Task: inverse folding
């Protein structure tokens, strides 16, 4: 059911240091930082030939990644995102198979302007999974 890996998201406490690492040490192509007030994050996209890494830095006191950074002060892998063809079909399949869909199960418009859902990490070996309608 799942298709391409759309992105891996890394929560970063210091966006400048993170950009330095990916740009200068790893030699990747980076976007300009973009504030996403609806999602409480500032995002830098690391463009790779086959997927993206998204550097997520908290924006505002209610940022959804504040709690993660409290538990992981140096940052860490926050989630990975898989593409699906039809998010409602994917959701119904996941629910039927016993997976827990976060946030009441209704897709929200994600950072790329496409519908997304998040799945409970306890159902996926501790990894938070996002699915995005491609
Ligand atoms: Co994401």
Result:
């Amino acid at each position: 059911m799942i298709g391409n890996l759309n992105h891996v998201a890394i929560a970063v406490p210091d966006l400048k240091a993170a950009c330095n690492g990916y740009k200068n040490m790893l030699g990747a192509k980076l976007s300009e930082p973009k504030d996403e007030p609806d999602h409480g994050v500032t995002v830098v996209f690391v463009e790779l030939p086959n997927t993206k890494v998204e550097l997520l830095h908290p924006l505002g006191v209610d940022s959804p990644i504040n709690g993660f950074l409290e538990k992981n002060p140096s940052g860490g892998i926050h989630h990975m995102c898989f593409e699906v063809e039809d998010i409602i079909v994917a959701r119904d399949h996941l629910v039927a198979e016993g997976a827990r869909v976060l946030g009441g199960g209704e897709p929200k418009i994600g950072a790329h302007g496409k519908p997304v859902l998040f799945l409970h990490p306890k159902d996926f070996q501790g990894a938070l999974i996002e699915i995005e309608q491609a």
Summary: The mean pLDDT is 96. Residues 78 and 96 are 26 Å apart (CA to CA). The pocket of cobalt (II) ion is lined by residues 7, 9, 54, 79, 81, 130 (CB under 6 Å).
